[in-house]
Every structure is written in structure tokens, then in C-alpha cells.
Design goal:
The protein has helices at 19-28, 31-51, 63-94, 98-122, 135-148, 160-171, 177-190, 192-200, 206-217, 227-248, 254-274, 277-333, 381-397, 401-422, 424-427, 436-460, 471-478, 485-510, 520-527. By secondary structure, the chain is mainly alpha-helical. It has one domain (27-363, 371-460, 485-542). Helix 10 (227-248) packs across helix 16 (436-460).
């Protein structure tokens, strides 16, 4: 997805352009200006696509209405993608790569905006978020209410998201906490694509950041509690950027290394305040990788190189502690007393399976059908593809920070997963280990993308064919490199745009209101519950809503029984006696 075409020459006096216009054109090419414009483009595209949901008319409680609404969103997405392509083609005739940046940013925004629009359709005319006052939605609303009353949060829970919802409650929704949570959830869903793209833009060219970063983020799109995977999508590239800084520290001045480390520490600290789970699963791998890179800095740059690397990691650590140190202390202090005994759906499943992260939402899958039997020794071809990508990425990029970081986080999550799973019966504790499935899937998808990126880079940098090869053979070998840059950009924008649209539609479809027990039940409950101001959705079943309840009891700690809180349904039910009596099997 990268090309060797050089940017078009900048306008100057010899082209008859006034000096003032030339200076303005040069200013527009400043990195800070371009980065700001790229960020605004991605965010604007996401929010614009989300807002298009208001132009769709449907009854979200009817399946036909849901299908029509999802199709209407796809129609609008196609039209917007068409506009992006129509602007991209003529712009690339004048500028080589600049239009690609903004086109990729726009598609990244549309990728998650279409999902947010779908969830908005599911919640049409209700002020509740998914699941209304129940489950984690209810707990979050109870915590926000406590915050507004001047009380403190549970020390183990990341504080940033409840504070964001409290701010929206106070200044936007006039005291309606549920409505504020709905708005916050939709915004986080909409901005997942821009976050994935912009985070990976720190490390990759635009089209590769779009193809690798946003594609790997597709399974992470969770409309219910979206801020958790929101952090995962940005955590990996930010840590990879920090590891890259350690690699390059011997080549930088000490001041530059420290400033860049401080900026990365700020970003990582904010992510930690939003959700800390991925830090726990990745800690062992990142610590080991950091030590290895510091030793490498000492070997390649001597003592000055080591000091530069220490300045970078020290500045990052100092800013991280300044931003998130208070919460880190509370988290560590409550580590011994906070025990997770909740049995997720996949607590019962074979522990090596992670290829499709189903999370802990209700559903009808049974142990006999999940995971789907694999083709090779019980392992599915998709999982094998992920492992092949891991091997190729390590083979071609063993010295690259992106590959090393993704591999280290994968290894760390696997170790933590198997450790807690192997002690689950003994300790009667789950400790959230099924959530490592999300991290493993995301990291390995990234490694598959990086493997493709490294193969293309190696092909582009390969030496010319031997002079012994004939002209036709040599031309055939080099043909893949002679791609039209506009063709590459248009092909990537169109194919990835359609992929993202389909993924958004498929995910949104699962959350459409459905009275049966499953993800759709979350929206159904929201549609059938009156808000705290007495508003009842006009789509409520039979025009009736149940009244909201007092959720203050959710703040009361549940007594710890010391046992796993597993569903009452036994996954291995006892065999019922045959009413006709025992059968003669012919062996007597």
C-alpha cells in the first residue's frame, strides 16, 4: 500500500505563485497542521456517519424495520465513500500522498461511525443505554450518581469513564445519568475507528494504518461498555511507539528522548485511567521487552545510548505516575481483597480458544457448539492463519518494535490466562481471565497485518533481478511494484470501506432489540423501560414501559461466599433414567 512516487513539487516563485501564497502552502505542510487536520477529518467522519442515523425512519422493535434501517445506513455509507473517492482521484493528480492521508482518515471514521449509527437506531427514542439500569450499565450509573453526591469510587475501578459520564450528566443531560451514559457509549463506539487509525499512524503509513489498525479493531467493537476495548486498540501501538523510542534513543539527544517519552507516558497514563485490564495482562511481557531493549541500547550506543534510553523510559514513567499514580496505588492496595468469582460464558469452554471473542453477554450458545470444531486437530483454520502470521512477522521483523511489542503482549496474556485458568478450581476465582481472548485476538490480527506489511516492504526493497534473467522474466518479477498510486489508494479505500461497513452492520444487527435472551435483549430492555423523567419510548412493547428502579442498592457490596458464582444450569446435566428401562445391548 506504499508507493515510491515522490510528492509533487511545492509551488514557488518560478511557477508564478505569489510569495505569500507559497508561504501559506508551506505552512499547510507542517507536521502539526497535517496531524491536526487528519485527526479532525477522522473524528468528523465518525460523528457525521453517526448523525446520519437520524435521517433513517424505522420501527426498531420490528425485525423488518431493523433490516431496512441497517440497509439504509449502508446506502448512506456507499454514498459517502463515493464522495471520498471522487475527491481523492483528482486530488492525487496534484498531490501524491497528502490526499491519501485524509481519505484514509475519513474511512477510519466511517468504519466505526456506521456501527454507532446502528446502535443509535436500536435505541431510537429511548434515553437509556443498552441494558437500561441492569448489569454493568446499572452499576456505572450508580457510581456516577455517587460521584455527583460527592462520594468516592471503588478503588479498584478505573475512574476516568465514570467522571466523563458525570460531566455529561451535569452539563448536558440535566441530571439524567442514564441518558448521559447512552451519549458517552455512542461517542466511544463512534471514535473507535479514528482512535485505531491515528494510534497506528504513529508507526505506519496511512493505508497500512487503515488496513492493519482498523481491521484488527473490528472484533473489538463492543457497543456495551465500549471504553474497555477502546483502550486496548490504542494501548498496543502506544506501547510499541515507546519501545521504538527505546530502540532509537542512542541516535537521539537526551532531551528529545525525554520529551518524547513524557508525551507517550501521558497518553498511556490516560488510557490506564480509562481501563487498566490490558495493562495487567501485558505487564510481564512489556517489562521483559523493556529490559531487553535497554540492554540493546547499552550494547549499540554505549553508556550514552543507555542513558538516553533510561531518560526516555524514566520520563514516560514519571508522567505516567503523575497522571495515574493515585489510581495505581489504590489498585495495588485493593488487589488482595478484590476477587472475581463471576463465571463468564467462556469460563466453561476449552481454554486455548480465542479466535472469536464472544465476551460475557447472554446468548444461546451451548458448550456442545462453542467453539466450533476446528479442522486440524480441533484447531480452526482461522486460528492457524493467525499463528502463521505470528511466525512470518517474527521471521521478517524480529528487530522491529511493533512486532516485538505485539508478540510480547501475546505471550504475556497467554501466560496470565493459563495461570489463572489452571488455578480457577483451587482458588474458586476467575480473575477476569476470559478477557485475555480479546487481547490475544487483537495482537495476532495485528501480527498478521504486520507480516503482510513486511513482505511488501521486503519485495519493494529487493535488489534488481540478476542480469542473467531475461527482460520478460525480470519484468514479471517487478510487475507488482509498478502499481498506479491512484489505483492502490482507490482499491484500498473501496475494499476496506466495504469491509468496515459490513462488519459494522453485522455487529449492530446483534444488538437490535430482541425479546429473547441474547445481545438484542439489552436494547429491548432499554426500549421497554421509562426514564427517570417518565419518558417512555414510542416503540415500547404494547406502548407500555416499566418504571425505573432505585439503583442505590448496587453500591452495596455483595457478600463474598468464597465460591465461584456460576449459573445454576449444570453444563454437564446428569443423564435421565430411561422410562422404558435398561436395554439389552447384545453383550450379555
Amino acid at each position: 500500500m506504499t508507493t515510491s512516487v515522490q510528492p509533487a513539487p511545492s509551488p514557488g516563485r518560478h511557477q508564478g505563485i505569489p510569495p505569500s501564497q507559497g508561504r501559506r502552502a508551506a505552512a499547510l505542510r507542517l507536521p502539526a497542521v497535517l496531524w491536526t487536520a487528519e485527526i479532525l477529518t477522522a473524528a468528523a467522519a465518525a460523528l457525521f456517519m453517526t448523525g446520519l442515523a437520524w435521517t433513517v425512519h424505522l420501527n426498531p422493535m420490528s425485525r423488518i424495520g431493523q433490516v431496512s434501517g441497517l440497509a439504509a445506513l449502508q446506502l448512506r455509507l456507499l454514498l459517502v465513500l463515493g464522495v471520498v473517492v471522487l475527491v481523492l482521484v483528482p486530488a492525487m493528480r496534484r498531490w501524491a500522498e497528502l490526499p491519501v492521508r485524509f481519505a484514509a482518515a475519513a474511512v477510519a471514521g466511517l468504519s466505526s461511525g456506521v456501527l454507532a449509527a446502528g446502535v443509535s437506531l436500536a435505541l431510537r427514542d429511548t434515553n437509556w443505554p443498552l441494558y437500561a439500569q441492569q448489569g454493568d450499565s446499572g452499576s456505572l450509573q450508580a457510581w456516577v450518581g455517587a460521584l455527583l453526591d460527592g462520594k468516592s469510587l471503588d478503588g479498584a475501578y478505573p475512574p476516568l469513564f465514570p467522571h466523563i459520564v458525570a460531566f455529561i450528566t451535569e452539563y448536558v443531560t440535566h441530571g439524567q445519568v442514564g441518558y448521559a451514559l447512552k451519549i458517552a457509549d455512542l461517542v466511544f463506539v463512534a471514535l473507535l475507528g479514528p482512535l485505531a487509525y491515528l494510534s497506528w499512524r504513529l508507526l505506519l503509513p496511512p493505508l497500512w494504518a487503515l488496513g492493519i489498525g482498523v481491521t484488527a479493531a473490528l472484533p473489538m467493537a463492543q457497543p456495551y461498555k465500549p471504553y474497555t476495548t477502546f483502550v486496548l486498540v490504542a494501548f498496543l501501538p502506544l506501547v510499541a511507539k515507546l519501545m521504538q523510542l527505546l530502540q532509537r534513543a542512542p541516535e537521539l539527544s537526551r532531551r528529545t528522548a525525554a520529551v518524547r517519552g513524557a508525551v507517550l507516558g501521558l497518553g498511556i497514563g490516560l488510557l490506564f485511567l480509562l481501563y487498566s485490564g490490558w495493562f495487567v495482562w501485558s505487564a510481564a511481557g512489556v517489562v521483559v521487552l523493556t529490559a531487553v531493549l535497554l540492554l540493546r541500547a547499552r550494547r549499540t550506543g554505549g553508556t550514552p545510548g543507555l542513558l538516553n534510553a533510561l531518560s526516555a523510559i524514566g520520563a514516560a514513567g514519571a508522567v505516567f505516575l503523575l497522571v495515574a499514580g493515585t489510581y495505581l496505588v489504590r489498585l495495588l492496595g485493593s488487589a488482595g481483597s478484590t476477587v472475581d468469582r463471576y463465571c463468564y460464558f467462556d469460563t466453561y469452554t476449552e481454554p486455548t480458544y480465542f479466535a472469536m471473542w464472544r465476551d460475557d453477554l447472554p446468548g444461546t450458545d451451548g458448550q456442545s457448539t462453542w467453539p466450533v470444531p476446528g479442522e486440524i486437530g480441533g484447531v480452526g483454520l482461522f486460528t492457524i492463519l493467525l499463528l502463521v502470521g505470528l511466525g512470518v512477522a517474527l521471521a521478517l521483523g524480529i528487530g522491529r518494535a511493533t512486532v516485538l511489542t505485539a508478540a510480547a503482549c501475546t505471550a504475556s496474556a497467554l501466560l496470565m490466562r493459563y495461570w489463572y485458568a489452571s488455578h480457577m478450581e483451587r482458588d474458586q476465582a476467575v480473575m477476569l481471565y476470559p478477557r485475555t481472548s480479546a487481547q490475544l485476538l487483537y495482537c495476532l490480527l495485528v501480527l498478521v497485518g504486520l507480516a503482510c506489511y513486511l513482505i511488501v516492504r521486503r519485495r519493494q526493497s529487493a535488489p534488481a533481478a540478476s542480469s542473467a534473467a531475461g527482460p520478460a522474466e525480470e519484468a514479471g518479477r517487478r510487475l507488482p511494484l509498478r502499481l498506479n498510486p491512484r489505483g492502490v489508494a482507490i482499491g484500498a479505500v473501496c475494499s476496506l470501506g466495504l469491509l468496515f461497513g459490513m462488519a459494522g452492520s453485522a455487529t449492530a444487527s446483534k444488538y437490535m432489540p430482541d425479546p429473547h435472551w441474547g445481545p438484542g435483549a439489552l436494547a429491548w430492555i432499554a426500549q421497554s423501560t421509562a426514564d427517570t423523567e417518565g419518558h417512555c419510548s414510542r416503540y415500547a412493547p404494547n406502548g407500555e414501559c416499566k418504571q425505573p428502579r432505585d439503583i442505590s442498592d448496587l453500591l452495596v457490596p455483595v457478600p463474598d461466599t468464597g465460591k465461584l458464582m456460576c449459573p445454576k444450569v449444570n453444563p454437564y446435566p446428569p443423564r435421565q433414567p430411561d422410562p422404558m428401562g435398561p436395554k439389552d445391548n447384545g453383550l450379555n
